[in-house]
C-alpha cells in the first residue's frame, strides 16, 4: 500500500506542521516486517523542490512532486500554509488540483489538523463530517459551510475521506488507518512500539468507540463496563438505564455526553470490537462468534461486518488472525 504525504507546500512550516508530518512518517514510514510484510510504501510529495525550513533550524526535502499523489492508495495532507488558516489566503491551486486528481484516481484522502482546509478547498469534504484543531474549526465551518464540521472529535471516518483534529490526534487517526488496513492486532503492536494507547479519549475528543469510560459520578461508567463484560446478553437501553437507576432518556443523554455516540451505536461498536478480537485470537466458528458478541446469528454478524468494515468475518479472520506456529522439527 502506497502512502503519499504532502507537507506544507510553501516555505516555513511551523513546529506543529512538522510534528504532524513526523507522526505520519513514524507510523507509515517505519517498516514492521514481523507484523506485516510488505509494509506501507511512504513517499513525500511536495510543490517545492528545495528544502523547507521549520523554525529556522532544519528543513525537509520531498522525494516526489505533486504528481506523485496520483495512484497512491492513501494521500495524507498534514498541514497547509499558516496564512491559509489565519489570513484566509487560498490554498495553493497546484495542491488543490493534485488532490482532486488523486481523489478521482481512487485514493483514500486524509487530512491532519489544518490539512482539512486543503481537502475542503478541493471540494472533497462537501456534505461530509470533518474536523480539525478546535482553534480552527470555526474558521473551517465559516469558510466552507457545505462541510459538516465537528469540533468535539479526535477524528472522523467517512470511508474514503478521513480527517483528524490537531497535534497528537493525528496519531489517533494514523493508528485507526492501520487498524482498518491491517487489523486490531497490528495496530495494537504499532501503538505499543510508539508507547501510546491504541485508543484514547480526551478533551477535543471523539470517544474512541472501543473504549469504555471509567467509573464516574453519574453511574454511566460502571454500567458501561458491566455491559462490555456481558455483550452476549440481550442488552437494551431501557435495561441499562434501570441498572444505572435513571430514565432511558437521561441514560441516552449522559451516555452521549460521555462518549459522543448513541447507546445503540455504542453497543454495536462494542459488539463488533469483541467480534474482531474473537476472530483474531480464537478459532470459534462464525456462528459462535455472533452469539458471544451478542449479534445473534452468523447472518447478522456478516451484515454488520460488511456495513462497518467492508469485509466478511471470514475474510477478516484470514487477513488478521495470527499465523499458525511453525511445526518444530524432530
From TrEMBL:
Domain HTH araC/xylS-type: start-end pairs: 221-319
InterPro entries per the UniProt record, alphabetical: Class_I_gatase-like, DJ-1/PfpI, Homeodomain-like_sf, HTH_AraC, INH-QAR
Keyword Transcription annotated: yes
Protein name per UniProt: AraC-family transcriptional regulator
Manganese listed as a keyword: no
Keywords: Transcription, Transcription regulation
GO molecular function, one term: DNA-binding transcription factor activity
One Pfam family it belongs to: HTH_18
